[in-house]
């Protein structure tokens, strides 16, 4: 009997390992085994978090937050950059100040980390590396913002934090204190951070109190709209590495509320009330996506939901949460823009539609589309999860900043 039990245990373990490791990895992805392991590890953590949530031990996002905590590094200066944690406008920031002498005033990047408005922090190893690298390569001041997170804080807290830090930093007196050229400041972010960067850039155009104009915005695979969570990229990449469709839905809904009814409505793509139907023109993928991304899919009009959710949680119809929802007129005058999209990413089509609409509004856009990459690729540049594609995309982003900022 002992032998049989051992065999059963072995078979179960093998099956479980196979289930985690053998995820369908797209054919054109480099280093597929590495990507499988990264993906498997992430799925294992999120499944454990789901079990802990189901057992009532902790909120699902708190379970995922353990990754953030495990990755934390304290602010550590090196020979090139002085690093410190401080506050701007009562919001925690990590500041990177280059030590190299500068001929004149320096450039600056205000950076917002990703993590679905629920996870992440400036002090995570991967973000600390990216912002330190940015500061060092560009000889630039970098402000990385630790905005408040859901589920403890919902929209608009995240947006308000990053906005007040940016607005504080853009004051002439603060820029001169850090030796920054007021004509060479940029906002940047990845994923949810790209969402916040796009929203901040839009809001600054409307704000008469801000004299300094942004030179650029850099959006790395940003999430930009809440209306249609069934775009071709959502359908195609529902189970791709790192960011599944169900996780995006969990992040989006949690940004606005912990009430599960919004998540359920978003999961079935029936959360938008008929009264808001005029907004769909801004995310109508049949007009805004190139043919090769449609892959023969035919656009169908949305199925409307009850008005109740939008009345309770108006945030998901707010352009500060969904930057694609502004009119064309409000896109004019936005700064020079960099957009990175990845083929195997649920958020791919958001970036494509925004790039298309910005160009149509006369904004100079550089849109890099990585056909062999998945969501989050830029942060996979450190061992043990180092990927060649991560280095390539990170370097391309830095290169763009160097040429345009």
From TrEMBL:
Keyword Hydrolase: yes
Keyword Amino-acid biosynthesis appears in the UniProt entry: no
Gene Ontology molecular functions: carboxylic ester hydrolase activity
InterPro entries recorded: AB_hydrolase_3, AB_hydrolase_fold, Arylacetamide_deacetylase, GDXG_lipolytic_enzyme, Lipase_GDXG_put_SER_AS
Stored Gene3D superfamilies: alpha/beta hydrolase
GO cellular component: membrane
Catalytic residues (positions): 191, 345, 375
Keywords: Disulfide bond, Hydrolase, Membrane, Transmembrane, Transmembrane helix
Domain of life: Eukaryota
Listed transmembrane segments: 7-23
Entries under Pfam families matching the protein: Abhydrolase_3
Domain called Alpha/beta hydrolase fold-3: residue spans: 109-268, 318-377
Family in the record: Belongs to the 'GDXG' lipolytic enzyme family.
Protein name, entry field: AAAD deacetylase
């Amino acid at each position: 009997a002992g032998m049989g039990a051992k065999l059963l245990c072995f078979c179960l373990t093998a099956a479980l390992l196979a289930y985690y490791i053998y995820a369908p990895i797209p054919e054109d992805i480099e280093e597929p085994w590495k990507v499988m392991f990264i993906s498997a590890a992430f799925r294992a953590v999120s499944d454990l978090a789901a079990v802990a949530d189901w057992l009532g031990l902790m909120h699902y996002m708190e379970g995922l937050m353990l990754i953030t905590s495990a990755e934390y590094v304290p602010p550590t200066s090196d020979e090139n950059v002085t690093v410190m944690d401080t506050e701007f406008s009562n919001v925690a920031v990590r500041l990177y100040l280059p030590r190299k002498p500068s001929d004149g005033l320096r450039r600056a990047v205000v950076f917002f980390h990703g993590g679905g408005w629920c996870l992440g922090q400036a002090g995570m190893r991967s973000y600390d590396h990216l912002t330190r690298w940015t500061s060092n390569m560009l000889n630039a001041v970098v402000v990385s913002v630790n905005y408040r997170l859901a589920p403890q804080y919902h929209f608009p807290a995240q947006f308000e934090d990053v906005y007040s830090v940016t607005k504080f930093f853009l004051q002439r007196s603060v820029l001169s204190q850090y030796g920054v050229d007021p004509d060479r400041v940029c906002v940047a972010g990845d994923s949810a951070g790209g969402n916040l960067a796009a929203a901040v850039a839009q809001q600054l155009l409307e704000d008469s109190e801000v004299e300094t104009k942004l030179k650029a915005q850099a959006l790395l695979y940003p999430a930009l709209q809440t209306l249609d969570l069934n775009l071709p990229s959502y359908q195609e990449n529902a189970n791709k590495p790192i960011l599944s469709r169900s996780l995006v839905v969990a992040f989006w809904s949690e940004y606005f509320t912990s009430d599960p009814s919004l998540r359920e409505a978003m999961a079935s793509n029936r959360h938008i009330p008929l009264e808001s139907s005029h907004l769909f023109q801004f995310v109508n993928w049949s007009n805004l996506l190139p043919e090769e991304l449609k892959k023969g899919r035919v656009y169908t009009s949305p199925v409307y939901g009850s008005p109740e959710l939008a009345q309770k949680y108006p945030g998901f119809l707010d352009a500060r949460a969904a930057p694609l929802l502004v009119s064309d007129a409000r896109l004019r005058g936005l700064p020079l823009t960099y957009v990175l999209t990845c083929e195997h990413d649920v958020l791919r089509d958001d970036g494509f539609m925004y790039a298309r609409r910005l160009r149509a509004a006369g904004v100079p856009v550089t849109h890099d589309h990585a056909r062999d990459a998945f969501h989050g690729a830029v942060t996979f540049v450190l061992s043990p999860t180092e990927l060649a594609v991560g280095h390539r995309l990170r370097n391309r982003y830095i290169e763009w900043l160097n040429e345009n900022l």
